[in-house]
Amino acid sequence: MVGRGSRQDRPLGEKVYNSLRRDLASGSISPNERLGEERLAELYGVSRTPVREALARLLADGLIERDHHGLYPYRPRLDELDGLYELRVTLESKGIQRVLDDPTLSHDHALLRAELGTWEQYRSASPSAGSDLVIADEHFHMVLLSSSGNPALADALEAVNARVRPARALDALSDERITTMIREHVHIAELVLEGRLRAARDSLISHIASSQTTVLERATRALSMAKLGLAVRD
């Protein structure tokens, strides 16, 4: 068996981590399935060491959780998610509202133009669905809020994102939804740069609400599947 610290094992650990994260996001691993090292090692054709390494990272990410039976895929709490999305709306809309309320304030246009350029490029070559897209989406919203000039708001949003991220990983975005995300991000950034802040705020709130609906629907399905196996786990 390859040692934990060897050069051979580190790429294997990364490979298993990415594969397991993808399978968790796609739902190909049941929410009730215990994530045993031996079975996963057989599934991915590796030793237990890189599996153990991948599971430790996923546990730190919040994508899996531990109970008295072992490790299982993270099961989102709907009431918590609802509150977190409400907080997202409050924080992100406040970034635009504070500029609306104070004529001495303005967004950092250079910062926002650079981010807009990234999303315009995505129209022809969008990031693939999965963790890369979630990270890109979070970055857009962080830049938009940061550009309003209040670092404390952006710090608060980062904390919210960390708690929402495991549930978003359950949601495998379709090509249509990726296209919609790109279009809406470009539109919101353009509205801010044009100084149409009320329209930008309203579009941003609608955009977040749409994301909330789809993530909660996916989380609800995951919870329903999980309930079917509670008797087995308990």
UniProtKB/TrEMBL annotation:
Q: Gene3D superfamilies per the record?
A: GntR ligand-binding domain-like (1.20.120.530), Winged helix-like DNA-binding domain superfamily/Winged helix DNA-binding domain (1.10.10.10)
Q: Which domain of life is it from?
A: Bacteria
Where is the HTH gntR-type domain positioned along the sequence? Answer: 10-76
InterPro entries per record:
GntR_C, TF_FadR/GntR_C, Tscrpt_reg_HTH_GntR, WH-like_DNA-bd_sf, WH_DNA-bd_sf
| Stored Pfam families | FCD, GntR
**Protein's recorded name:** GntR family transcriptional regulator
Arranged from A to Z, the UniProt key words for this protein are: DNA-binding, Transcription, Transcription regulation
Mention one GO molecular function.
DNA binding
